[in-house]
Q: What sequence folds into this?
């Protein structure tokens, strides 16, 4: 699990640049959380409001964007229309094949971001609180993604794979950008982690090192 976490957080930060991956993807994380940054993995220790009484306003960006990533040369995606995978799925489906261990398929649909408003003023207070409490080398969560739907699959070994099929028989073809689409996992083999059609997760975060 440690090697999986390291590769997942490293690869997603390298791809998305300004954002870090939340690990585990389903773990709760809030604006103002602080903790250690171990490589690219954020290890939460507390919250600046609860621990130090530092209040802040929240800016909500209504813009919704999709965030996707697949490990280069390690993931094969095959989209199947309804009824074209006999004995596995009668509904529309996507077949995910992995060529290496810890290969990643990541899709976060219709993400909106909340962030700490007036960050320079707030972070100055954080710096003072950290100095007073002798806390060094920590980072603060300044931005969180709110995903309408997430599909995340990480291989447990080379040759692993999974089929995600639409729950509804009315769907003719899988559209991963459709946040309302409900999928379920079938025919799973050597999968290390899976998150399927999960709502309301925080897959990505923004951090400020103090």
A:
């Amino acid at each position: 699990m440690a090697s999986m976490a390291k590769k997942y957080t490293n690869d997603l930060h390298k791809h998305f640049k300004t954002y870090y991956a939340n690990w585990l993807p389903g773990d709760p994380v809030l604006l103002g959380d602080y903790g250690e940054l171990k490589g690219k993995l954020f290890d939460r220790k507390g919250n600046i409001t609860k621990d130090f009484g530092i209040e802040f306003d929240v800016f909500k960006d209504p813009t919704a964007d999709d965030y996707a990533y697949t490990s280069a040369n390690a993931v094969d995606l095959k989209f199947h229309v309804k009824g074209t995978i006999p004995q596995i799925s009668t509904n529309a489906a996507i077949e995910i094949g992995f060529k290496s261990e810890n290969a990643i398929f990541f899709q976060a649909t219709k993400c909106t971001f909340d962030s700490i408003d007036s960050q320079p003023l707030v972070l100055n207070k954080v710096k003072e609180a950290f100095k007073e409490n002798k806390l060094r080398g920590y980072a603060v969560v300044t931005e969180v993604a709110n995903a309408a739907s997430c599909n995340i699959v990480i291989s447990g070994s080379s040759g692993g794979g999974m089929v995600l099929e639409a729950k509804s028989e009315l769907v003719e073809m899988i559209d991963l950008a459709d946040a309302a689409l409900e999928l379920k996992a079938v025919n799973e083999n050597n999968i290390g982690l899976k998150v399927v059609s999960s709502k309301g997760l925080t897959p990505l975060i923004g951090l400020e090192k103090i």
In short: Residues 141 and 207 are 5 Å apart (CA to CA).
